[in-house]
Design brief:
alpha+beta, 7-stranded antiparallel sheet, 12 helices, 17 strands
């Protein structure tokens, strides 16, 4: 994947939505922005973490806010360009490489568009290995790095530059600015050197997203269902199969928050499941007991096609398979669990790894 092809982008859009755990924005919007930018500005080169030079300057570009709002306010090229220009002006540093801050539907592809517009490469890696709802929930924060500069832009041409004290203040201030901007913004933050990227970035996640998307988009040449293929690729587990019976969803504090309830089908016919989300799925319960929890990944897939369903795209009556995959090892440290574990989101559980929860169910 040295140069991104249109097929790569199609696959990344799908695969990143699986890894994005229901969040990260609408993949169709991200795909169209990336394809349009490449058609207008030229192809995008992909480089690996190992190919970075220590003194290169890497800048993440992403969307912030409620995914439900972003569907209504699709960013223009001008909005995509403004935060990077403002960051370079404030920092005095020229961007050598852009990268995704997270692997999620739109946020995996916004930096592709930014890379095309600026004729610079994109890094095959991100700072989450999934999608998370808050700005400090990145591996940079886990490694003690601070977002010394943050720039945000909206569709009206407003650009805001802040110098937060740390990741938590970056989240608080940026979120309030984003709310003032109408609930969505384009952001550049956590600029890092190549040396820092080699230590903190989760490598190869664009390639992983492409491979996952390829399984779903490709012709079925095997009797094995794509959901089973994805589960095996990601060392995951099928938690539940059912029909969406009730969805409670609202935009609050700049996030899409809520819960979804499912009635069991087939082997799960006598059971029920509930998903709790804040942009992303953060907790899954079956019959009132936890079966997967953040920072592990929880994904809702269409029963027939295996295609991922986002938190804002989930509809009553949808027949789904709920799956989960283990988080990157950085998130299973004490710092990772403190930053993005269930207690942080006020859920009444201490973190239990997915594998342990699955084993406990099988042992019963």
């Amino acid at each position: 994947m040295k140069w991104l092809t249109e097929e790569d982008i199609e696959c990344i859009a799908v695969g990143a939505t699986v890894l994005g755990t229901g969040g990260g924005g609408d993949p169709y919007i991200g795909k169209m922005m990336a394809l349009s930018a490449i058609q207008q500005y030229g192809p995008v080169e992909v480089i690996t973490v190992d190919e970075l030079k220590d003194d290169q300057w890497i800048l993440p570009a992403s969307g912030m806010g409620s995914p439900s709002v972003l569907v209504e306010k699709i960013p223009s090229f001008e909005q995509l360009a403004a935060p990077l220009k403002a960051f370079e002006k404030a920092s005095g540093k020229k961007t050598d490489v852009v990268m995704p801050i997270e692997i999620g539907g739109v946020n995996s592809l916004i930096p592709v568009a930014v890379a095309a517009m600026n004729n610079i490469p994109i890094l095959d890696g991100d700072a989450m290995g999934r999608a998370f709802p808050e700005a400090q929930m990145v591996t940079f924060h886990l490694d003690g790095l601070k977002p010394e500069l943050v720039t945000l832009g909206d569709e009206q041409g407003n650009v805001v530059t802040i110098e937060p004290a740390d990741g938590y203040w970056s989240e608080k201030i940026s979120r309030n600015v984003t709310i003032s901007m109408g609930g969505s913004s384009i952001v550049c933050d956590y600029g890092i050197t190549g040396k820092q990227a080699k230590e903190s970035v989760i490598p190869g996640t664009l390639t992983l997203a492409k491979n996952v998307g390829g399984l779903l988009r490709g012709k079925r040449e095997s009797a094995e269902h794509p959901i089973s293929q994805i589960t095996r690729l990601l060392n995951g587990h099928i938690l539940f199969k059912g029909k969406a019976a009730l969805i409670k969803r609202k935009i609050e504090g700049g996030f899409t928050r809520g819960e979804a309830h499912f009635e069991g089908l087939d082997n799960f016919q006598d059971k029920s499941a509930t998903l709790f989300f804040q942009n992303e799925h953060l907790l899954a319960e079956v019959n009132g007991k936890p079966v997967a929890m953040t920072p592990d990944l929880i994904a809702v897939l269409d029963e027939e096609t295996g295609m991922p369903i986002t938190t804002e795209g989930l509809k009553y009556g949808a027949r789904v398979v709920i799956t989960a995959f283990p988080a990157h090892e950085k998130w299973r440290t004490d710092m990772g669990i403190e930053t993005a574990g269930p207690r942080y989101f006020k859920y009444p559980y201490d973190y239990i790894p997915l594998e342990t929860l699955v084993k406990e169910r099988l042992d019963k």
